[in-house]
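Obj: model holo form, ligand = pyridoxal-5'-phosphate.
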Amino acid sequence: MMGHRTRGVAAPMTQFPIVAIRQDFPALRDDIAFLDNPGGTQLPRRVIAAVGTAMTRAASNLGGYFQASQEADRINELGHTAAAVLLGAASGREIVIGQSMTMLTFQIARSLCRAWGPGDEIIVTRLDHEGNVSPWLLAAQERGITVRWLPFNRDTWRLEPEDLLPLLSERTRLVALNYASNMTGSINPVALLTHHAKQAGALVYIDAVQFTPHDAVDVQRLGCDFLACSSYKFFGPHLGILWGREALLAELYPYAVRCAARSLPSRHEIGTPQTELIAGLEAAVGYFEWLGASCGGRGERRSLILAAYQAMTTYELPLMSELIDGLRSLPGVSIRGIVDPARFSERVPTVSFTHQRHSSRSIAEALGRQNIYVWSGHNYAYEAARLLGLDEDDGVVRIGLAHYNTIAEVTAVLRAIDTLLQSTAS
Ligand SMILES: Cc1ncc(COP(=O)(O)O)c(C=O)c1O
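Output (holo structure tokens):
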């Protein structure tokens, strides 16, 4: 496939190896359309194998005097380094690995807010997943901190700098932002939003969970202070990953046991690490490197990763375009997100819609019966669902593509929805 546009580097000119990719994911089958990727992606063989191998060779605590323990140490170090390369971080010391993005955010919110109290303010958004809202609300409530809400623009579907500016003041301690929405698919201008927040002297915490499966994060370029993501959304195991500036992580109060290590990153990694899953995380980053090399990328790990993202973005674009076009042509369907092709670089291929007569749940159920996997509900984008006036439980139907999906799957889901709507048309 010829290179199209991307959000960064020049396009490689190699064919996208979709057949080899699909063969590498044992869960993918031609009689199933797996389109619930924003809920969690499938795993390539190297990730599955790495988890199994670690369970065989490294099922041990860290820091011991025998081989299995030394292997666990090695895996942990490689996992942190790989995550650092993936996110553009300075080193693995800036990477905290935990159970999930939500757990890590609860932990960091509690630690950060400890230093603040009445008179201090934090800003959360109405586009974020609850994983980047509730932890701040609860910590703020405990400390008497004022919470301000940043709405999203209903025309552009994004968090806009002009809406952030009036909320910022010298009292603002932190702004919690969403990189890409798990409901609307919008990519927010987080670098600019971060710039404004930093000018006001606030810390910035970014949720990149839905961005990392589709495009490259560069924490240095963003200028934020913390960024969280989840490896099960980018072809890895169920782990949360937090990047934080080393100086901040080194100072931040850890809610840890008294005798825990005080060095980074262990300082914020509470309890025994999930070594086997960390092996899977390292392999997931290795998968990006393989993909980058297969798509014409050359050079260092980070260059290969950037090449992989660029090839994925390029491949996903026509699929997303076909999906949005097809849904728009169906009577009664309204898409909740950017539909203007000129703005497709401002969204990921996560497409949510409602139908004027059919509940989202009934559509998702009917598709599920045909082996077409999609999700319905508010999907924890709880404030967004409320702002859009959606039924709180029923929410939207969400179709989320990944780089291993095919145009045939997009055609299949569109045809199935069309048939469903026609068969029940009044
Ligand atoms: C945008 C976004 N943020 C946060 C989360 C929560 O991630 P985790 O399951 O790792 O807590 C999700 C999960 O769907 C998400 O989509």
